[in-house]
Amino acid sequence: MTADDLHALKIAFTYMPQAIEVTKYEYGDNFQRVLDHIDYVRGTLLEHGIDPDEVPGDINPDTTPNSCY
To answer: What is the predicted pLDDT for the residue at 65?
Structure first.
């Protein structure tokens, strides 16, 4: 994966819902598929040494709260 591909994946990940937000009420019968897609993207980021929880701060540093630790 090129650096540009990885950057594009990080941008797309910032627009994905958080797993905790995915419910059957909101997504109907597709909720498990959405959860699987989120897990797949998170796993791909981890395989490339990127912490998925840090991605929003990397992509949008001006709108991300500072870490408390």
So the answer is: 63
